[in-house]
Specification:
This protein is α+β, with helices and mostly antiparallel strands. 36% of the residues lie in helices and 30% in strands. The chain has helices spanning 2-15, 18-39, 44-62, 66-74, 76-86, 88-100, 110-130, 160-166, 198-201, 206-215, 246-260, 269-274, 277-295, 336-341; strands spanning 134-138, 149-157, 177-181, 184-191, 221-225, 232-236, 239-243, 300-312, 318-324, 327-335, 349-352, 359-364, 377-382, 385-401, 404-405, 412-420, 423-429, 438-440, 444-445, 453-458, 466-467, 474-483. The protein is elongated, with a radius of gyration of 39 Å.
Length: 489
Amino acid sequence: MANTAWSLLRELQSQFRLADLFDILLVALFLYLVITWFRTSASRRMAVGVLVVGVVYVLARVLDMYLTTQLLRTGLTVGLVAMVVIFQEDLRRAFEWIASWSRFPQPPAADAASRFSEVLADGLTLLASLKRGGLVVVEGHGAVDRHISAGTPLDGQISVPLLCSIFDPHSPGHDGAIVVEDNRIRQFAVHLPLSTSSHELKGLGTRHAAALGLSERCDALVLVVSEERGEISAAQGGRLSQLNSPAELRQRLAGFHESRFPRRVGQSWKRRLWRDGGTKALAVTLAALAWLSLAFRTETVQRTFLVPIEYRNLQADWQLGETRPRDIRATLSGSERAFNLMEPGELRASVDLAGVRQGEQQIALTAANLNNPSDLEVLQLEPRSLSLEAFPVTRIRLAVEPRTRGQLPVHLELDGISVVPSQVRVTVSREDRGKLQQIQTMPVDLAEITRTTTVSTLLDLPEGVGYVSADVSEVNVTVRVREKRSAQP
């Protein structure tokens, strides 16, 4: 057992790369965000159920439980669709949360934030003492506009008299909420979505249901003043908690401000690193285990691929004739992880033709011709050489001769045939330069002609003749016909 563990450790040490470390850390970051998000997700119980099903599926695969594996695999597609439906609100929140990272709001000055907390705490404490209901939404990273309705724009500096005026029982908008952004009241008389969580509400009123409902859908802090009991409560992350004193309210506001605008100075990197250390350690552990089980493989695998051949550095005035073969079979050896990271479609056998000579020749193929990844070894190439013919070429201009087949219908006679373009530029071997006078088109079937018609057709290139890249490969053949005079009345 000790020898096996030591051998595995040495194998891990020899194969572990810096890229693998970054791979694990990126996955750990993703897992940490997912775990943190599900802590505040209203559907976290359902997420635990999905996780249990996933664990059962993995165990069924490991223990070769065929029936259970097939059943879970068959229901995978339906399950994915169901998950999207069940978690649609949570997924939308997650994407909004990620999108909010791209926003870098400027934190207000410390004294301004402190004054805001003092004013808001004093105003809500006064409302509680007067037993006037109030509802205040303090925006977090994510915008709340998608979740709220109605409302009247205000954009006013927050103050105790303004709060008392808005939530005065005789004010038309006193039953709604105010939205605070950057220490200013942006809107008032706003309607919030209601929560249906009887466990959190426990018989509380509509204001508390509205505060909790918005906190379930975004990361805002919602403060609510009870009109009946004169108490102040805070809703955040789908949880409702009572604040028993003005000092506790100020502390809650300061903590929310710190979470939205974390201090960059006065806080060491070690402190930031070890904050929420348990969750981070769990995320790193899960990522490392996933890497060990999915990415790290000690056994060596051999696989054979059909690889096309590409030619480089052929001189502009040279051309290839027949080449054999068109592609080769390459057998590679390495870890399964290396094969999983490889794109088979990108494999190429590259042949340098800078020193090619005229005529038929054999070119040896080695591992150096293959663009295989560095962590895969080339065991065999088949064949080990290729046969090709090369010759110098020149460019000439040839007349295009239209070619036909068949006969026109009996009531028609040929009035003429023309082709556009009438000449094309092609490449030919230097030996054949004086032998070609014209080049023919592919035959046009006259039996299908019922009236004067223009047909697009290819050129019938003789062996060793090629197109100049600037020219098109098709020409237009116009067949002009007329009625036979004997057929006319």
